[in-house]
Amino acid sequence: MRSLLFFSCLFLLLMGCKPKPDLQGFPVDKWKADKGGCQGVRKTLVPDFKKIRQILKGTTSNDFVEIFGKPDINQIADRNEEYYVYFLEAGPHCEDITKRSEAASIAIRFSSVGLASEITFQQGTPVK
Q1: What is the pLDDT of residue 4?
Q2: First-to-last CA distance in the chain?
Q3: 85-110, pLDDT tens digit by residue?
Q4: Where are the beta strands (DSSP E) in 68-115?
Q5: Which of 22, 34, 105, 111 is deepest in the core (most CB within 10 A)?
Q6: 41 burial via Cβ count (<10 Å: 0-12, 13-18, 19+)
Q7: CA-CA distance, 98 to 114, in Å (whole number)?
Q8: Do the record's keywords include Signal (predicted)?
Q9: CB–CB of 20/63 below 8 Å?
Q10: Domain boundaries, the chain
Q11: 8 A C-beta contact, residue 115 and residue 59
Q12: What is the third-level CATH fold of 22-123?
C-alpha cells in the first residue's frame, strides 16, 4: 500500500514538471499586445499559431495564461471543463467585452485537470 502511494505521488510530481512548450519563435509579445484582436495583429499570426497548435495540447491553463496572456473570455463548460477564448479580429467586444461577438476567435478547451485538450478556430465563442 505504501509503495502504491509513493508511486502515485511520484507520478503526480513528475507530471507537474512538464516543461513549457517550444513555441518555435511564435511572437507572443505581438499576440499579447493585441488585446481582443482589436488591432488586427492576431489575425496575421494565425498561420504561425496553427504551426504550434499540436505542441500546445497538454499545456496547463496556468502556463497558457503566462505564455499568451489573460484570455479575452473564460467560459466554464460541462464536467468542470473550461474554455479560454482569444479573439482574432475586431468586433463588438472591442467596445464592451460583455457584448456578444461573432468575430473570429481561437478557443482552447481545458480538461477537468486543467490541461489543454482541444484548440479550435471559430466565429464567436464555443459555449452558447
Answers
A1: 57
A2: 46
A3: 999 999 999 999 888 899 999 999 99
A4: 73-76, 82-87, 104-110
A5: 105
A6: middle
A7: 25
A8: yes
A9: yes
A10: 22-123
A11: yes
A12: Beta-lactamase Inhibitory Protein; Chain:B, domain 1 (3.30.1450)
